[in-house]
Amino acid sequence: MELFGFYFSYLDIALFVVLVIALFVQLYYYIRYFMGIIRHNKKIEKNKVIFSETQEPVSVIICARDEVENLQKFLPFVLEQKHPEYEVIVVNDGSTDDTADFLSLMTKKYNHLRTTFVPAGASNISTKKLGLTLGIKAAKYNLLVFTDADCMPEGENWLSTIARNFSPEKEFVLGYGGYLRKKGFLNRLIKFDTLFIAIQYLGMAAAKRPYMGVGRNLAYHKETFFNMKGFASSLNLISGDDDLLVNRGATSENTAIEVDSESVTWSEPKTTFRNWYYQKERHLSVSNYYNCKSKLRLAVEPISRAFFYAACIALVVFGLLSFNWILLGSTVFLFLLRYGLQIYVINKSAGILGERKFYLTVPFFDTILPLISSFILVFGKKNHRVKWK
Is the pTM of this model over 0.90? Predict the structure, then answer.
């Protein structure tokens, strides 16, 4: 086929059709789902999001195993929130360090700090789920907020911004749990991965399609937990205390998201690729247990992304080899169209959450992370040896 003096083979045309279809799928995901944080923030600015007028009492629950150093650094930030009435329950999950002694000292300083522990010899595959259940049972209040021992709230209004979303109708509140900024390429990779996952799960929840949350910054009703029979359906799994629970119980009507920068928690990131890989392997180990609709939505986007990049690369090569500047120019234009939308969505969302921004590294992270995740899903261990923390 010849157009404007340039020859197009059937392969060129087929690849360009694949490119256009993949682009339309990508644009659908970015506009329909991934812009959710941006749209939700605009609704808040226009007073279209209804928050609770009363500050209900809240129970904060933290599970800790051998994390006395993290508790020393971060627990005071949780204990010094401005929320009018709340308690903090720290569950000591069989720690062999000085966690018990430290918590004993802290309970004397903070009368709203309570502690409990996982009994020695507990045989559960996931003692964290047992610990969380014990903490939930010990909680005085119906509104529960969860974070980890290595998490630091952005500020003293963290708890109030999360809790303002609760109502009789809203049973789940999903927040952002980011990682502290450090030097180096690995930290950029971790932060981009974490941010993009948040853009996905917060955006889909904003679009009435909730599918997961993260235990670093998650809230739900105590009553909801027991109505769902807690972690009974996932006791055979090491992970899943956060995302599987949300995937099973969150609906379009009972789930809210919180995107204010003061609602964010920050955690210590892994410092080696090996440890981050194991952490990601553990997180992905339960994704196969998501409901079918969630798995389908999560699969279509990276598959279309792979087709988009593959078609782009092939068309650029063919365009250069055949000196077909129309083919080459059209391909580059469509690539830049998607890249421009990416930069806007990712960095606008990052700005709202108080996260770092990304520019030139986006295409690289956008291609390498799905490859890592795919490798883990195919070859990763099903029951990982790394501790839950």
Answer: yes
